[in-house]
Every structure is written in structure tokens, then in C-alpha cells.
Amino acid sequence: MAEPLERYLHTRIPLSAALGVRVLEATPECVRLTAPLDPNINHIGTVFGGSAAAVAILTAWGLLHMRLAAAGLQTQTLIQRSRMDYLQPIRADFEAECHFADAVSWQRFLTMLQRHGRARLTLGTDLRCLGRTAGRFEGAFVALGTMLAIPDPP
Amino acid sequence: MAEPLERYLHTRIPLSAALGVRVLEATPECVRLTAPLDPNINHIGTVFGGSAAAVAILTAWGLLHMRLAAAGLQTQTLIQRSRMDYLQPIRADFEAECHFADAVSWQRFLTMLQRHGRARLTLGTDLRCLGRTAGRFEGAFVALGTMLAIPDPP
Prior knowledge:
The structure is a homodimer.
Chain A: H1 2-12, H2 15-18, E1 22-26, E2 30-35, H3 49-70, E3 74-86, E4 94-99, H4 103-116, E5 118-129, E6 132-146
Antiparallel strand pairs in A: 1-2, 2-4, 3-6, 4-5, 5-6
């Protein structure tokens, strides 16, 4: 499932190609991206904070996209708010990973979307480089729904 | 002073060129950048949140860079933490503006840098598109100093 997401990102969000983003893993439970140092380098030879934030957003957005697709839902998803902690300078190619397996929150999100055509979900992305956590991102996303189907709770 | 900053950004932080960033104004009191919709477009035809965040970071970082250069200081400046509120979808070319004219905070920052070789400053960037505020960014930056000179308070 990594290739279709990568193609989607590079085609529909062209900055993802400029960032050099590759999709390593893409399931409804986990999306993992990687990006190289070179196109993202800054004035002191580490990854530019804006690149790190952009890759973190793509990762979290990618996970929401995978979950909504798996649930057969057509929505527009937008970022509403974000927060990022830069913990370590990133001196090499890096990875970004977003997990989500909270069935209760997900069901609440689906119920809100069904009732109000609008629901919010907060997702976190960890950035890692050379085996160390280099940054933490948290973003609140809003889905505006055209509902195709509401699946039963698992 | 806009041209040297633009050249610096495009050369030393190459993602700024991919974002299509142009510097409209660059003084120690105000940095204003602009970026076009096209290279920053997302899957729903508005500006990708990661592009908006990256341009906001460059604007605030640019202002700190201008202030430190005007003060004759050589430092490494890094982003430590950031927060972004996405208030409106950005449907066209947009601008980012960061002001800073707080003499008291600036003097405290310089004193910290002199005493400890390290000081932190929080800066805010407003994003605007078609005459409306579209987003608000706040970032905490750390300067690690090689002090060349400490100017007297104004």
C-alpha cells in the first residue's frame, strides 16, 4: 500500500516530491515516510525545521487518508492546528512515523462525521534519525464528510 | 535588504526555492515573504499546511537573522518549538509577515546570550491571503552564540 500513497502525494501535493518524500509503509494503523537530508538541508547542515514539520504533517495526514479510504469514506481532510517539538538536530536522512489504533476514538470520530458532517481527530508523528527520536509533532485534523458508508464497529 | 536575504535563503535553505519564496521586505523590525499557490498546492486546491508552516518558519527565522546581523552577532539559530493555527484555507498566493520591535525582550535576549552563550526568543508570523488572516504561527528559537560584540542598549 506504500506505492499508491506515494504516487498520490507526489501528484496531488507536489511539495512532497520536492521534499524527496518516499513512503515506506502505509496501512490504516501506521504510515511511515522517509526523506533525505540533501533537499532539506539548512544553513547549518541539518534538516530545515520547515521540512521536518512538512514531512510530519504528510505522515499524519497520510494515516488519516488511509483510515478514511479503508472505511470507504469520502471526505475533505484539513489540518486545523499543529504543534512541533524539535528535540535533536537532524543530521542525516530521517523517518517520520504515525500510528493510530485507538478503536474508541475512531468510532467517536466516525459517529461525529455521520451526525454532523464534520469531525476532528488529533494525530501524532514521531521523527527519527540515526536511531534517535529527533522531533514530535501533534496535529488536529478536520474531516468534512460526504459519507459513502458508515461501517459497523469492529 | 530583501535581495540578500532571498539569496541567502535560496542558497543555504534550498527548500525555500522549491516553495517559491520571495522576500518582499527584510529589516530588523519586519520580514515579509510571499509564496505562490502553484508549487504549494494540495489535493483540494489550497495551500498545503506543511508549505504554510515552512514559509512561516522562514519568515520568523529571517527576522531573527536580520536582527542578529544588525547587532553584529554571529550565532547559530535553531527552532526549538512551534505552534500553528490554520484559520482559513489559502486559495491563492500568500504572504507571511513577522514583526518584532520589543526593545526590552531583545535586550534580555542579548544579555542572556552574552552571559550564557545561549538565549531563546519567541516570534510570531501572520499568514495572509486575499486580504484576510489565514494562519498564525508562533515559534521559539534558540541562538547559540559566538559573540562578536554586544551593542549598548538603544
